[in-house]
Target: Nitrate reductase
Amino acid sequence: MRHDAPLSSAGPVRTTCPYCGVGCGVLALPDGKGGAAVAGDPTHPANLGRLCSKGSALGETLGLGSRVLHPLKRNAAGDYDRVSWDVALDAVADGLKTIIAEHGPEAVAFYLSGQLLTEDYYVANKLMKGFIGSPHVDTNSRLCMSSTVAGQRRVFGSDTVPGSYEDLDCADLIVLVGSNTAWCHPVLFRRIQQNRAERGAKVVVIDPRVTATAEDSDLVLPLKPGSDGALFAGLLVHLTDQGLTDATYLANHTAGFDETLANARAIAPDMAAVASHTGLKLADIAAFYALWAGTPAVVTAWSQGVNQSAQGTDKVAAILHCHLATGRIGRPGGGPFSLTGQPNAMGGREVGGLANMLAAHMNYTPAEIDRVGRFWNAPNMARHEGLKAVAMLDAVAEKRIRALWVMATNPAVSLPRADHVLSALKGLDLFVVSENVISNDTLRGEPDFILPAAAWGEKDGTVTNSERRISRQRAFLALPGEARPDWWIICEVARRLGFAQAFNYPDASEIYVEHATLSAFENEGSRDFDIGAHSMLDRRAYDALNPVQWPVPAGRPLGTPRLFADGNFYTPDRRASLKPLATPALAATVSEEFPLVLNTGRIRDQWHTMTRTGLSPKLGAHISEPSVYVNPADAIRYGLTAGGFARIENGHGAVVLKVALDAGVPQGSLFAPIHWSAETASHARIGAAVQPLCDPFSGQPEMKATPSRILPVAYASRGFVLSRDPAALPAGSWWASVAVEGGQGRLFATDASAEELMAHSRSLFGEDGLVEMIDREAGIYRCAATRDGKLVAALFLGPAARAPLWDTVKAAFADPDFAPQNRLALLAGRRLDGAADPGPVVCACFGVGLNAIRAAFAAGNEVSVEDIGRQLKAGTNCGSCLPELRRIGASERQGASAGEAAA
Ligand SMILES: Nc1nc2c(c(=O)[nH]1)N[C@H]1C(S)=C(S)[C@@H](COP(=O)(O)OP(=O)(O)OC[C@H]3O[C@@H](n4cnc5c(=O)[nH]c(N)nc54)[C@H](O)[C@@H]3O)O[C@H]1N2
Ligand SMILES: Nc1nc2c(c(=O)[nH]1)N[C@H]1C(S)=C(S)[C@@H](COP(=O)(O)OP(=O)(O)OC[C@H]3O[C@@H](n4cnc5c(=O)[nH]c(N)nc54)[C@H](O)[C@@H]3O)O[C@H]1N2
Ligand code: SF4
Ligand SMILES: [Mo]
Model:
């Protein structure tokens, strides 16, 4: 519970969602008790009032129960002692000084995050590259956007996203490449669907896996993993052969088209060649090419299916080539569009947070090193590019890097070969982590210091979304405990390293103004990133800043919605530079030993490693367990059963996940979510089983295609436990945590007997107030514990084939008025109010369960998704569940007609 008074009592604070790169505006109204009511900001151009399920549930994530609130120092016994900020900051600075003195500045590194604010990022980058003198600053954006950065820099000469979200409203064709937009950028998906409904725009989805996004589209291209380059090379050939290239644009504004076309012809001379590369049907390829060729207002949007590839940079370039060849760029409704992942992945790129950029979209050229050095008045400029994330952690393992400061990212989960990463972290001479939470997998890497960082709602600064729109994040809660903003922590260390003058910022606004000034410094139109109009902002103007798209050069305070329609790029000759694709468009190589391709990605209602969304019961209800999604034919082939368990292994690491059958997953492939960690599940940290293979240009790891094998795993029994605090399970059990109303849930599977679970429960919950039932022969044990008339715990165990369901018990656990005399009825698994069990939640916003939705559809053949919305409210807030509602409706109708046929 927060004790501080809310910061504002004068109505909601305008801020920005801390999750995805859509960058939705949020209105947060503090409740005075540490929480806040959250709503979409109708005036924010990114979302116009909408929020998705994750944004809508932000209020459920503001609790302080999991927060780190004081600086902590590791002692000789391996425990943590609370220390003052002065002690912690002095020690961090001394530790850095010692290592720099002994091993040189390149022995220290920062690993940052697209979840830092621009101001945090700016000072971290400045300290390392200008003052410590090490180039080793990289960020989790390396795992996220770096192939797009490399592709855009190669072709445009700058890391520029040319378009605007408005283009999604007025395009006639939207092509989504390697993007599960329905789940990962839900508010943009709603905009796209609105365009489709109102203007008839067509949507094409290119993804080996048929996703929720594909369900609301006009054409689905389930290509072989990794073959996007060939598909777009073929499109370039097709456009040329159809005479649809824009000769004037090509002649005036591009270079390298002929070689690029020759290369495309070598890869994909005709559609038959494309079919053999991609595994797609000729008719589908022809339909796609005809649509693209015939629709000038086309947006090609992409995310991780393109970026996280061993050929990611080439995939990006192949898409850009097609837009440039037709001059379809920078025009309303037309252009290539990278959908960024994190809320401030773009801001991080702007300050130079990637190891191969310097600052403000400047690079490691002698002239730019000199320019940035003069601007910063920097004593120790780094002079060459630094190590990229995967290589940085290898350097840590090899002790070339001896001090690492991790901020706002959880690399022990999210980097490839995560087990190796965790052991590398443990070997550091100095390991510092700035975090919001007291416990995550990276903190198991034994940091010397854990520094409590301010979290969303407490910090002030700016973020940039996918469409280059800079928005303010504003604080609406007081800082809890001794938490401090990330920029403050960095500046305090800088001061102790002897750089007080250069890091003397009273607040975030002065950092932003310096960043804006640098962006305009000796720029004169030579660099895309120019927000010079903001170099004059005072604190009040900064606080009042409205969302605006960069460039915002002096004299253009309203910003720039689109770039490149004029054909002026940021290469030396101002022409876009087309180049042959260097890496062949190959699918991942499987073998007899590892015959399957492991694809990893996101689910609708969780954010990354779940340190925040994992706190929300609403969000935990949609998909509660880590599963591997397998094609039904592969399930038969490998002896897997739906609802059973399977082990995935590949020489890098292994996980054990529940098995879910999914006809949308192609044969030969597996899909697993990235969200579960050692904190939230026993065996589901998928990063451990991801290969460290990287794109040769961007250094971005291939996280979508690790050759692997899968084996069934059997447990004798399954069950669940609900308790106020997380409950341990017998050794060897499989479990996954789920946030539930009033406490913690764990779904588990075990070989322990009913008898053993009884002993375990008694030791966990005590025998006082415990009612139990056991059937040793049937392997059933159930108990409910009450204390002071309240239900405080329940544990149900049953044979694996008939796992007990928990919806009823969960409802009782959440009920503050639960009457202890109902414990026996509860053990029977009956609902106490006699109502029907709602089943697993489909609509997170209104908590509408599957059974209720099925029943409503079953009421008549004509029931539409809109009717469901009117009756149950399901799907009427964020709309993230609409594809699922449509699928349930279709399967109910199918079931009904099958029933009629049988009768
Ligand atoms: N719910 C939710 N939303 C999020 C996030 C989250 O954690 N949860 N994270 C945010 C972040 S940081 C990011 S980066 C974005 C990511 O957003 P997305 O990129 O949309 O998400 P992913 O699920 O990682 O991957 C997208 C798709 O790529 C497909 N794919 C795999 N291999 C290939 C291939 O070779 N070619 C093609 N064309 N497709 C392929 C996968 O099957 C998958 O469906 O989401 C953001 N939004
Ligand atoms: N296998 C596989 N791996 C992947 C991906 C994939 O698709 N497949 N996707 C990759 C991508 S695209 C991404 S973006 C990464 C994301 O991976 P991570 O960045 O590792 O995941 P998060 O859970 O977002 O970690 C953020 C951490 O920072 C903390 N935090 C949040 N806000 C703040 C703050 O303001 N200050 C500080 N100091 N700490 C804060 C949170 O508590 C949390 O511990 O995962 C990558 N890894
Ligand atoms: S789409 Fe959802 S997660 Fe993304 S910014 Fe908007 S509300 Fe946040
Ligand atoms: Mo990301």
